[in-house]
Design goal:
- The protein has a single domain, classed as Up-down Bundle (Ferritin).
- It is elongated.
- The relative contact order is 0.14.
- It is mainly α.
- The protein is built from seven helices and no strands.
- The chain is 75% helix and 0% strand.
- The structure holds MU-OXO-diiron.
- MU-OXO-diiron binds at residues 26, 29, 59, 62, 103, 106, 139.
- MU-OXO-diiron is lined by residues 26, 29, 59, 62, 103, 106, 139.
- May alleviate iron toxicity in the presence of oxygen.
- InterPro entries: Ferritin, Ferritin-like, Ferritin-like_diiron, Ferritin-like_SF, Ferritin_DPS_dom, Ferritin_prok.
- Fe cation binds at residues 26, 59, 62, 103, 136.
- Keywords: Cytoplasm, Iron, Iron storage, Metal-binding, Oxidoreductase.
- It is found in: Cytoplasm.
């Protein structure tokens, strides 16, 4: 039964592969943010620790969204092996610089997926990834605004504590 359904609904191998790559990227992002959460917690940066724990949850949700989409289209989803998750980070600011780099990388990946969708004329998948492209605008925005706090407040004295206190107030309203 499943095979008959697959004949009607399959996605191309190319799209299946690039989506499974993205599943792995989102899974790695989830593990990375959890590691950042633990590091911030260890540094006494409680709000940053909560911020990254939430980010980690969101990335897992992203991973599952794509994972389920592949299956729902009759493809084969792959539960990814997650390796190279750091334990230590150089600095508070460095953690957010790495976050911005990570999100810019993800945006680039989704642009590549969009390009591939056009190439193979898979407009259903193109439509599916619109949510992720919009999400990337928010994720990059928040990382950039938090990085600005480091410039505006500075880390000297009680600066780190102030940054930690303010970063949870950074939100994206889309305007
Ligand atoms: Fe799922 Fe932050 O990209």
């Amino acid at each position: 039964m499943k095979d008959l359904l697959k004949l009607k609904t399959s996605i191309s191998e190319e799209i299946e592969n690039i989506l499974n790559e993205q599943v792995k990227i989102e899974g790695h992002a989830s593990a990375l943010y959890l590691a950042m959460s633990a590091w911030c917690d260890d540094q006494g940066l409680d709000n940053a620790a909560s911020f990254f724990a939430k980010q980690s949850d969101e990335e897992r949700t992203h991973m599952l969204k794509i994972f389920n989409y592949i299956s729902n289209r009759g493809g084969r989803s792959i539960s990814p092996e997650i390796t190279n998750v750091p334990v230590d980070f150089d600095s508070f600011r460095g953690v957010f610089e790495q976050t911005l780099e990570q999100e810019m990388f993800v945006t680039e990946q989704f642009n590549k997926i969009a390009e591939k969708c056009f190439k193979v004329k898979d407009f259903v998948t193109f439509n599916f990834i619109q949510w992720f492209l919009a999400e990337q605008v928010e994720e990059e925005y928040v990382a950039r605004r938090i990085l600005e706090l480091f410039d505006v407040i500075g880390e000297e004295g009680t600066g780190r504590w102030e940054i930690d206190r303010h970063l949870v107030k950074v939100t994206f309203d889309g305007e």
